[in-house]
Amino acid sequence: MSLNRSEKEAVVAEVQSLAAKAQTLVMAEYRGVVVGDMTNLRAKAREQGVNLRVLKNTLVRRAVAGTPFEAAADQMVGPLIYGFSEDAVAAAKVLADFAKDNTALVLKAGVYDGKALDVNGVKQLANIPTKEVLLAQLLGLMQSPISGLARVLAAVAKQKEEAAA
C-alpha cells in the first residue's frame, strides 16, 4: 500500500522524534516471523521501553540523515524491523533474546553512540547487564571492604572473649 506525501512526511517526523530521544537503534530482518510471535515481541519491547516499527527503509534513511544513526544507513535494506530505545541496551537485549528463541528473526545491525554495530556488536551490547544489576554490583563492591573489616573485628573480639574465659 502506497503512502501519499503527507503520510510519508508524518512517518519521517515520527522517526526523527524517536531518533532524537533514543541512544540505540537495532535493525533485524523479520522475514518468516509468525504474526503471533511478532505480537509477543512487540509486547516485550513495550515492557522494556523499546519502540519497534516496521518502516520503509528510504523513509528511515531520510529521517536519520544528520543524526548519529546515519552510520547504519547502508545496512537499511530488505524487510527490517527497527528498534529504538532510550536505554542503551534495551533494544539490543529485546531483539537478541527474541532471536535466540525464534530463528526467523535475524539481527542485521545497530547503532550505539554514533558508531555502527555489526551483528556481533549488537549481541555484545545485549549481553551488558541492565542498569539495576550494574548498580547492585557497584554497591556490593563498595560494601565489601566494610563487611570484611566487620568480620575481622568480630573474629578478634571472639578470640579475646575466648582468651579471657
UniProtKB/TrEMBL annotation:
A single GO BP: translation
Family assignment from sequence similarity: Belongs to the universal ribosomal protein uL10 family.
Pfam families in the cross-refs: Ribosomal_L10
Name of the protein this chain belongs to: Large ribosomal subunit protein uL10
CDD domains assigned to the protein according to its UniProt record, in alphabetical order: Ribosomal_L10 (cd05797)
Assembly mode: Part of the ribosomal stalk of the 50S ribosomal subunit. The N-terminus interacts with L11 and the large rRNA to form the base of the stalk. The C-terminus forms an elongated spine to which L12 dimers bind in a sequential fashion forming a multimeric L10(L12)X complex.
Origin: domain of life: Bacteria
Single Gene Ontology MF annotation: large ribosomal subunit rRNA binding
Transmembrane segments: none
Keywords: Ribonucleoprotein, Ribosomal protein, RNA-binding, rRNA-binding
Function: Forms part of the ribosomal stalk, playing a central role in the interaction of the ribosome with GTP-bound translation factors.
Gene Ontology cellular-component annotations: ribonucleoprotein complex; ribosome
